[in-house]
Amino acid sequence: MYKMNYESYPPPFRQENNHIQNIDTDETTNQVLDLDPIPLIDLQCLDLDQLGEACRDWGIFRLVNHGIPDTLLSQLQDQAKKLFYLSFESKQALFTGPVSYFWGTPALSPSGSALLPLSSAPQNINWVEGFNVRLGQLSPFQAEEPMLDSFRLLMEEYGMHLSITVSTIFKATAKNLNLDPQKSVSILSKSSGFIRAYRYPFCSKDNDTWGLNVHTDSSLFSVLYQDHIGGLEVFKDGKWLDVNPIPNSLIVNIGDMMQAISDDEYISVRHRVKVKKQERFSICYFVFPDEDCVIQSSKYKPFTYGDFRAQVQHDIKSLGLKVGLERFKVDH
Ligand SMILES: O=C(O)CCC(=O)C(=O)O
Ligand SMILES: [Fe+2]
Q: Name one GO molecular function term (predicted).
């Protein structure tokens, strides 16, 4: 049971009724939601055709029997919440090194700081704050603040579980796409993943404020654990669809790197996050190819993930948006 804490919000997110809303009640947690049409993949009896179909037609699927202990997921969520409820000033001061704090924009540099100063476009602020966790650099780091240190340990454990899960999925997709096993084994980086814990603050405005604007992920795969509030939407056949929160399941997205590797057979799904009249928490894991691994395909010029990331960062700084794979198309 948590109570909202006004001081924990970045100042632009502080609205008059922040203090009365958002007492996490058990009724909402136990709410049973209808299953949406998002494909369901069972990791314990993985069906390659079903998986391939989900990646081709949807670019997103719901993963069940994923093997990640429920207790770990709920501990992670609890610990993230505790950290989000610290005062805004403490969060700004506390998070340095491999765990950084951000708000108002999801566009970060590789070191985890905001790419653009928020003052440059206050009207485009994303209604979100988060912790960015660089998994490869987590181990040697020990936080003095005990709460942060437990968070670090949980993140490390979660990252280990997820790298196994994602590697199983990646191998299955490589088979489904008939990729050369020798080559594909070297694509998935063992060290470059990162995790983001998000809080989408309560928002009373019903205007064009978004938690996250429409985007595709740059990753190979992204794996999302979301709470019971909802807000994530995916674009499918010209329409936006809600991705309902279903207990004990994870959401897997295909990202741009997987779309390129698959020669555009798989879709890097467009998605966005709506703001709600309740706070929402989610935790997202992203996995990438090694920075200097060359991605060969018939649709794109050979490029490395390092090239891609540099281009995305350049476009965000100069145009204010990510152009993405279009930049690397053969006939561009
Ligand atoms: O929080 C969510 O539901 C989605 C997060 C997301 O799309 C992202 O971090 O790229
Ligand atoms: Fe995303």
A: oxidoreductase activity
Q: What is the pLDDT of residue 4?
A: 57
CATH number at residue 275: 2.60.120.330
Q: Are strands 60-64 and 250-254 parallel, antiparallel or unpaired?
A: antiparallel
**Pairing between β-strand 40-42 and β-strand 60-64 as defined by DSSP bridges:** parallel
Closest alpha carbon to 285 in 312, 255, 325:
255
Spatial CA neighbour of 285 closest among 169, 176, 174, 184 = 169
Q: What is the pLDDT of residue 256?
A: 98
| For the CA of 226, the nearest atom of ligand 1 | 3
pLDDT the model gives residue 311: 97
223 lines ligand 1 (CB under 6 A): no
> Closest ligand 1 atom, CA of 217?
10
Total domain count, the chain: 1
Element (H, E) at 170: helix 146-176
User: Chain-centre distance of CA 56, in angstroms?
Assistant: 20
* Interface ipTM: 0.99
Residues of the chain with pLDDT under 70: 1-4, 16-34, 119-123, 206-207, 332
Q: How far is CA 37 from the centre of its chain?
A: 21
C-alpha 305 chain-centroid distance: 18
Under 8 Å between Cβ of 276 and 230: yes
In a domain, 84, yes or no: yes
Domain that holds residue 27: 20-294
Residue 182, pLDDT score: 78
Q: Report how far residue 275's alpha carbon sits from residue 230's, in angstroms, rounded to the nearest whole number.
A: 9
- Which of the ligands is closest to the CA of residue 245? 1
Which ligand neighbours the alpha carbon of 216 most closely?
2
Handedness of CA 116, 122, 124, 127 (dihedral sign): positive
CA of 180 to the centre of ligand 1 (A): 31
106-124 tens-digit pLDDT: 989 888 888 877 766 666 7
Check if the beta carbon of residue 149 is closer than 8 Å to that of residue 82: no
Q: Is residue 233 part of a domain?
A: yes
